Amino acid sequence: MPDIIRLLPDSLANQIAAGEVVQRPASAIKELLENSIDAGATDIKVIIKEAGKTLMQVMDNGKGMSETDARMSLERHATSKISKTEDLFSIRTMGFRGEALASMAAVSQLEIKTRQPDAELGTLLYVEASEVKKQEPAACEQGTSICIKNLFYNVPARRNFLKSNGVEMKHITDEFQRVALANPEVSFSLYQNDLEAYNLPAGKLSQRIVNLFGKNYKEQLASCHEEAAEISIHGYIGKPEFAKKTRGEQFFFVNKRFVRSNYLNHAVMNAFEGLLAEGSYPFYVLFIDIDPIHVDVNVHPTKTEIKFDDERTVYAIVRAAAKQALATHNITPALDFSADINLGSKMDFRRETIKDKNYSQFKSAGSNNPQKSNQEHWEKLFHEHPGKGSLTSDVEREDPEGSMTLTFESNLNTKSESEVMSTDHKKSIFQLHQRYIITQVKSGMMIVDQQAAHERILFEKYMGCLRSSKGASQQTLFPQTLSLNPGDHSLVMEMEEELKALGFLVEPFGKNDIIIKGMPAEIGTVNEKEVFEGLIEQFKRNKSELSIPRKENLARALAKRTALKHGLRLSEEEMSGLIDQLFACDSPNYAPNGQVTFYILELNKIDNFFNK
């Protein structure tokens, strides 16, 4: 029987490896930027055309490569970063796998121009699908310039899976921001379709944050610093009042390497406990400096997932650093012991106030101190005749002059138990724990989840608006200006037509700002910024978790963010209207996320509870 296992050609092996390393244009930009940082560059320029599908170019003034090094850099697992096994446990460079350039060369048309400082001429290499088409001396600037054209031109299936230009450009911008934040001492510039998107001079971290995200960040930055035996943390956190409904602007860097860690994010959110509204996310840029021997960065080809050998200690130090920063900048609220909290809550519950605190209705003309004498008179009366009459804590009503009506306990004022039961029985619909609506149906009892039901109603309504492009809009009295990060801004501009169909009227205003001039009419009086930020955050979250069309994603996101929430008290008319609208839907049984909207508890099941 002939042998069937054979070694793959290098070109095919490189294409397979490229699937993990180069997932989209942003992956290539990340690898090229990190190579420039490792080369000691102090000035880096990025040029993008058609969101990287047509052209990506990264130019730096680093130490460059010799002719031999330039050719070797295109081989798989060829690197200058490590040379022996022990080096894996002391990695301080961004790259070390030696896969990036080989992978890019396998799925694109790649050109390298590079020159070392002491060389008169540099080297030009032109590669297509891992095959070197040209290699010759060339006059060029010191450093390295790598140009990638027509990414995935020889892998059409991968190219077809790329998203729209707006989405891909957002990913590129995200990677650019992360590398720029991690290296404030390096100047960066980004050009998109021949227009300058960023020009970041070298400076301090706080200046880099302001230059990246806008001048309004200057007010919200609180410095953070903490040191322990083998770990130190520094950076900035945002003040709670500036927290947004979008999660994006949260950055962790371990030895200047951007990482994703839900565990560390939980440590920061724990420090903000009690200071943030539900669904709000604070800004933070935190750097963790730790001996590389305690960190494993060789977990995934993207190198954004790492492992600590003592995660609990890191968690505790991050949480302590964030808490200390909040306390140092007087962000944690102080308690006001002069306020009567119990009295305030009682009066708020009744939604009434006693306007006449001097009890003027009890004043006596012959009393030197009318307030004191009348109060003593009534207190004496109620102590001498307990049970005959008492002042209730409930204030029934007030007349225009501010007098207070008193209710005295009496059998005449007390309904019998049968009367109470008779009155309650007349109600065919009621609310349970301000979460569920209970109503009687022919077969038994129906329980409706008010939030899930309202999501289904709104989802079908918004889908109808998107299909017809005729969503009603209510123009805002005072247009609101909203600052977005560049990625979110490009995403909003790309969805402008769909947002208009839903009823949002938005216009670009400045570099990364938009003006909200109108909102969907059915939303009512709301905080325009909060709703719009919540919509974008929910849209991005759905996009990362689900593969659904954009219109359906938008309808789901807006329904999720504007639906009635648990804990909201509804009137009988509102509950009846909600149920009527639910059963007018095409699919009333389930919310957009698949959650059941109602359940019918049949009479025979109820009987079984009592006849066991």
Description:
- By secondary structure, the protein is an alpha+beta fold.
- Helices cover 36% and strands 22% of the residues.
- It contains 19 helices and 22 strands.
- The strands form five sheets. Strands 5-4-3-6-2-1-7-8 form an eight-stranded mixed sheet. A five-stranded mixed sheet has the order 9-10-13-11-12.
- Helix 2 (25-38) runs parallel beside helix 6 and helix 16 (528-545) packs across helix 17.
- The protein is globular, with a radius of gyration of 33 Å.
- Mean pLDDT is 78; it is low at 334-375, 377-403 and 412-426.
Tell me briefly what this model is:
With 612 residues, the chain is an alpha+beta fold.
Write the layout of secondary structure elements.
Elements: H1 10-21, H2 25-38, E1 43-49, E2 55-60, H3 67-72, H4 100-106, E3 109-115, E4 122-128, E5 131-138, E6 143-149, H5 156-160, H6 165-182, E7 187-192, E8 195-200, H7 205-213, E9 221-227, E10 231-238, E11 250-254, E12 257-259, H8 262-271, E13 284-290, E14 295-296, E15 307-308, H9 311-328, H10 341-350, H11 370-384, H12 417-425, E16 429-432, E17 436-441, E18 444-449, H13 450-468, E19 473-483, H14 486-494, H15 496-502, E20 505-509, E21 513-520, H16 528-545, H17 550-562, H18 572-582, E22 598-602, H19 603-610
Parallel strand pairs: 1-7, 11-13
Antiparallel strand pairs: 1-2, 2-6, 3-4, 3-6, 4-5, 7-8, 9-10, 10-13, 11-12, 14-15, 16-17, 17-18, 18-22, 19-21, 20-21
